[in-house]
Task: structure prediction
Amino acid sequence: MLKTTLTVSFEFSASHRLFRPELSDQENTTLFGKCANPNGHGHNYTLEVSVGGQIEPRSGMVIDASRLKAIVEEVVLADVDHKDLNRDTPWMKGKIPSSEILAQAIFERLSTAVAKECSTALLDSITLHETRRISVTVSRDQR
Result:
């Protein structure tokens, strides 16, 4: 049986600061470099969301792309676009908003939402591009 994957891309802008509150400013700078700037910094992120599974015979789709878009906008983009990830995003509170941790949090949120929406497909992976040269992929463990 074939597995088909649909991927939809999104863009959002967000700021963040990488730091550990228990460390001094110098220790944070040593650990995180310029990303520990007390005023934070921003990125124009690209998020690729891939849903895989069997094609639903009635619709001919793995998942309706417009429905996937609505899920991503509701579950992720509403909380991160033009926001400070440290202060404005409830599900990132208390976490270091590195691309790796942000990508894992996005995957967890979307995995649950996609599973509720679609019985024939699952969230396969997400790729978060922090810049044109830096990206993080989180995927379902296939073990």
Helices lie at 25-32, 65-80, 99-117. The chain has a mean pLDDT of 94. The domain at 4-139 is CATH 3.30.479.10 (Tetrahydropterin Synthase; Chain A).
